[in-house]
Structure formats: C-alpha cells, structure tokens
Structure prediction request, 198 residues.
Amino acid sequence: MSAKPFKTIQKALKHWYLLTVIGVLFILLGVYVFQTPMASYLVLATLFSLSFLASGLSELTFAFGNRKTLDHWGWFLASGLISTLIGALLLTNPALSMATLPLYVGFGVMFKSIAGISFALSLKDHGDEYQTLLYLAIGGMILSFILIWNPSIIGMTLVTLTALIFVLLGVVAILFSLKLKKLHDLPNKLKEKIKGDS
Prediction:
C-alpha cells in the first residue's frame, strides 16, 4: 500500500496559508537581492537570518497544527527547526564571511528541497498533480549544491545565485500551499456533495 500524505480528509488542514506567506517572503527577498546586488553582505546576512527565522517559526506552527492530519508532518517540523536554527545562527553572527554564509544558506535550502521532493512524491501517491513541484524542488537541490560547492561554475555571482534560489524556494512554497488549500477545502466540498445527493 502506498503511503498517503494525509491521514484523513475529514478534518481541514490548519494554517495552510503560512506556506503562502513563506513563499511570498522568499520571493520578495530574492527580488530585492536581484535589484541590489551591491548591497553589503552584512545587510544580506541580516535579511537571510530574518527570513529563515520567519520561515522556521511558520513551519513549526504549521507542523504542530497539523500533526494529527499530516502523516509527514515531521518533515515540516524538521525543516522548521533547521530554518529557525540557521536564522538564529546568522542573526547572532552578523559578521559571517562571504565564504561561510553560503554554507548556512545552501544547507538550509538543500533540506527544504529534500522536504519538497518528499511531499511531491507523497502527492503522487495521493493521486494529485505533482510534477511541477517535484521538478522545482529538484532544481532547488541542484542550486543548493552549486551554492555550497562553487557558485562560479555556472558563471553566476554568489549574490545572484542566492537570489535565484530564494525565488525558486518561494515558488515551491506557494505551489505546495495551493495543493494544501485544495485539501483544506475538500471536507466541506464532500459534505456539500453528500447533502446534495441525500
């Protein structure tokens, strides 16, 4: 029997919109970095730390709020803990060097991409459209490897690559939140259908 990502469709998912908030936050950050590539790395480190903190706390809220509904809520919990930890480390170490910051961001993005791949495959088992989410998550993982290893390999500056990764993460989060929104609305739709058939 294939694993289902959702234990029941009788209860609506809680706080599904938090992933939309996370996605918008990451996209705005990515666009800002694209537009201000000459900003000091101290400014970027502060922005990254705040975004990871906000993302981590939102994911923790979502995970605990849906622990009885999602079979794979542990992925959100782990991703939230790691994001919060990275955000705290960056915030308490504002003078991180240009060589160190990409490692923090890269490993954080890598874990989020792994979680995205896991949930995309869970959506496949659930019978929902999953390819776009899966390909974007795989793209995020590839970019995170490049960020950690050597961003110059594809001729991009470190800042530009980081901005691209944040935009990609934002798109993945928003797409996944839309999937969750459909499942959030499903119990009410089923109740209405049952009433209409009776």
Summary: Helices lie at 17-35, 41-65, 73-92, 101-126, 131-149, 158-197.
